[in-house]
Design a protein that fits this description.
Elements lengths: L2 H15 L24 H12 L1 H4 L7 H15 L9 H12 L1 H14 L7 E2 H14 L13 H15 L6 E2 L1 H8 L8 H12 L7 E2 H6 L12 H14 L6 E2 L1 H8 L6 H13 L9 H6 L1 H4 L19
Antiparallel strand pairs: 1-2, 3-4
Helix pairs in contact: 5-14, 6-9, 7-8, 8-9, 10-13
């Protein structure tokens, strides 16, 4: 492998690891789904437990005594109570559940953080990220002039800079962990969703008219190379475009229609789970939970997404 091929391969791996929309063909973003099965008895807790952890990981909870479970669950409750007033609201439970659902995102950021925080100040500046990701390219641009890769480094760098600025909420040109998480995983943050839509449009809009027509939509998922008939699934996708993607029936998708496509407003599983937990555990019916009410109904919580179905109970609560 020559030097150019090696550098291209390294940069391509960097892009894939960081999950950039430039190379993502699965455009639609879904929250991890919770079970819709009714929580009627302990069997339903076990169903959820196994469905989202797998049978082996579901056994984790069984390794703890009730006393150990309650002790560790109490520490988690303190973390959920974000305002420290001693009451857990549905909103606080929902926020916690969503964070648990997104734990893989934060764990990914933790794994790569030291690769970019070059001066070890617990922030990542744009210059640090640019140097770590594009340093070789910037120092040796002549080696990339004839590259025929599927992406352009010249386009990727300003695109990353634009995304970085959107994630940098306080405008200090450096990202703390939450901001850097939003940069690497913009689809997980409400304030970054416009960037996800814009990047998706730029990826697919080959004629540069600011819209995605049916052929561009199909070309993003299917390369018609042999000149033969289209597979059935492609014909189905054309029907999907006409019936469900092109909402105003003008033959193309604008940014609002793209948002509707890639970020569907599905059933809010976290909200439903949070309401369920409050309803089932709220003994005094004040629509809030105390730690005592939660611990009284501890078996429901360790069988719910609020504690990742028991996994959080085996972690040091400072890790969460």
């Amino acid at each position: 492998m020559d030097l150019l091929s090696f550098v291209c391969a390294v940069l391509l791996c960097t892009v894939v690891v960081h999950g950039k929309p430039t190379l993502r063909k699965e455009r639609v973003h879904h929250d991890p789904e919770l079970s819709r099965q009714a929580h009627e008895d302990n069997k339903s807790y076990q169903y959820d437990h196994e469905a989202f952890l797998g049978k082996e990981e579901a056994k984790t909870f069984d390794q703890l005594t009730p006393e150990e479970s309650k002790d560790r669950l109490g520490k988690i409750v303190d973390r959920i109570d974000s305002d420290g007033n001693g009451y857990i609201t549905t909103a606080e439970l929902k926020a916690w559940i969503k964070r648990v659902q997104k734990r893989y995102v934060y764990e990914n950021v933790a794994k790569v953080w030291t690769d970019y925080d070059l001066n070890k100040d617990n922030k990542i500046s744009w210059d640090e990220y640019k140097q770590a990701t594009y340093g070789y390219y910037l120092a040796n641009p002549e080696e990339f002039e004839d590259a025929t890769d599927q992406f352009s480094f010249k386009k990727m760098l300003p695109r990353d800079e634009r995304r970085f600025k959107s994630a940098d909420l306080n405008g200090d040109h450096a990202a703390d962990r939450e901001e850097f998480t939003a940069f690497l995983h913009p689809e997980e943050f409400e304030h970054m969703k416009d960037i996800v839509v814009l990047e998706t449009l730029e990826d697919i809009d080959k004629n540069g008219d600011g819209h995605v027509d049916e052929d561009e939509y199909i070309a993003d998922m299917f390369a018609h190379e042999d000149g033969g008939p289209e597979p059935d699934w492609v014909r189905t996708e054309r029907e999907q475009f006409s019936d469900f993607r092109d909402l105003n029936k003008d033959g193309k998708m604008d940014q609002d229609e793209i948002r509707h496509w890639i970020m569907p407003q599905d059933y809010d599983h976290a909200q439903a789970e949070a309401r369920h937990l409050v309803y089932e555990s709220d003994q005094d019916k004040d629509e809030m939970l105390t730690k005592e009410e939660i611990l009284e109904n501890w078996n429901m919580f360790v069988g719910s997404q609020a504690t990742n179905y028991g996994e959080d109970l085996t972690r040091n609560h400072d890790e969460l």
